[in-house]
Amino acid sequence: PKGRSNSKGEYLMASYVLTCCSVADMDEEFFTRRKIPYICYHYIIDGKQYPDDLGKTIAFTEFYGKQSEGVRPATSQICAGGYYDFFKRFLKDGLDVLHICLSSGISGSYGSACIAKKELSERYPERRVEVVDSLGASSGYGHLMDMLADRRDGGAELSELLALAEEKKLNIQHWFFSADLTYYIRGGRISKAEGYFGKLLGICPVMGMDEKGRLIPKEKARTKRKAIERLVDKMKEHAAGELDYAGRCFLSHSACPKEAGALAALVEQTFPRLDGRVVISNVGMLIGSHTGPGTLALFFVGDKRTASQAEAISA
Q: Is the pTM of this model over 0.70?
């Protein structure tokens, strides 16, 4: 497709723009290099609202430090008006829009984006807006964006990229654990009793994301080291090609860089055909408001998430 620029002079590789939300949890360099505009979620601390802007307004260390001191951020989803204004600026530049949303299993923003799409389609009937529910989160969502950007840069038209997103989104495997169960108890994903004994025994629940984009406890590990090994075991089990996996691998963490480095090293040792090094990112403030510090997540391309995989094991 013929390249073009928008009103801000940003070079675009096609007659459409590929966009997402800030909760894809990649760094600013990624979005700039891959030419993917994003819209920010927001979080609230002490009554003041901040954008989830990849650590620019508040640094990740400061944010998770506040949580460790007892601060409990609140969050808000993006409203239809926010998506309307975000999409409209591209439509006014003569570009169609393919937007990939945070999973509807953990946020209602997908519905808001669809409302904006309907209203804009009536106002700009000559333009096209498509919205996809990623059924993913954090850098797993980012992994899908990376895959789509590759195909876009290879010359894919909007319809082809839309079909690819729908076809491949459940192939992005999400596996994670947390060494601090406080926020999972508050969010109702782990019961208070399970959380109490988990903390007492040093248990780290290993969780996954199901075919509806929901976070599901799967099993339990007694230590952080065992939990790291279980994430790699899940990659052995589910990755495309198993130990011969030759795709990319993404990892995100909330204020546990030491554990993130250990997991990345183990993945690279276990999967020698990996496409490059493991990409390590921070869990952003929106998702971090619900996980707290101490969460480590691994993402890779594998078999499709199914209902049978979603069977929860008590944490």
A: yes
